Amino acid sequence: QVQLVESGGGLVQPGGSLRLSCAASGSIFSIYAMGWYRQAPGKQRELVAVITSGGSTNYADSVKGRFTISRVNAKNTVYLQMNSLKPEDTAVYSCNADILPRAGQVGNYWGQGTQVTVSS
User: With contact defined as beta carbons under 8 Å apart, do 88 and 67 qualify?
Assistant: First the structure.
């Protein structure tokens, strides 16, 4: 069974930084795109950043220049470095990945989410 487990959320002051991690585990043959989404209270979930298996990246306009997505394929892990955080970045951040298990077909998987709160 494939699982995504996030870590690294918390409370940070405006202007501060946080680094989120998401590790995929289980019977995995290959991982394709990995990404981070967020959902703030009363708002729809939105894509924050995505990275392909080859390292190509794409970001939401609201985080460009402040957030950096990266991955270590050997560790089945994706990271989100968040700098210059703003109160409007407060949300539950969830990891998402397209994964081919050793037995079965490609599926889309979600982590449980981690809370990021930016407040003074």
Answer: no
